[in-house]
Amino acid sequence: MTRVRYFAAAAEAAGTDAEERAEGSLAELRAALVAQHPALADVLPRCAVMVDGVRSDDDRPLTGVELVDVLPPFAGG
C-alpha cells in the first residue's frame, strides 16, 4: 500500500490529509483519486506530485512506493 498525503487545497478537495492506496501507477492513482474525490478534478492538474520525495510523471510505477505527496502551488514571499 502507498500512503498518499494531501496538502493545502488538495487536502481540502480530498476531504482528508492522507489515505492508503493500491494503484499500480501514478496515472492510475490520479484517475482513482478524481473518481473518489471529484473536487480534486480542478486541483490535481495544478499539483506537483512527489513519489518517495522525487517529482514524478504519470508513467511512474508505484510498486514498492511508500509515500506520494500531492502539493498544490504555494504562494509566498
Description:
The chain is an alpha+beta fold. It has helices spanning 9-14, 26-36, 40-43, and strands at 2-6, 18-21, 48-51, 54-55, 67-71. A 5-stranded mixed beta sheet has the order 2-1-5-3-4. It is globular. It starts with a strand and ends in a 6-residue tail after the last strand. The mean pLDDT is 94.
Approximate strand percentage: 25-35%
Radius of gyration: 11 Å
| Residues in helices, as a percent range | 25-40%
Strand order, largest beta sheet: 2-1-5-3-4
Number of helices: 3
Structural class: alpha+beta
In terms of per-residue confidence, which ranges show pLDDT below 50 for 5 or more consecutive residues? none
Number of strands: 5
pLDDT average, as an integer?
94
Topology:
Elements: E1 2-6, H1 9-14, E2 18-21, H2 26-36, H3 40-43, E3 48-51, E4 54-55, E5 67-71
Parallel strand pairs: 1-5
Antiparallel strand pairs: 1-2, 3-4, 3-5
What does this entry show, briefly?
Strands 2-1-5-3-4 form a 5-stranded mixed beta sheet. The protein has 77 residues and is of the alpha+beta class.
Keywords summarizing the entry:
77 residues, alpha+beta, 3 helices, 5 strands, 26% strand
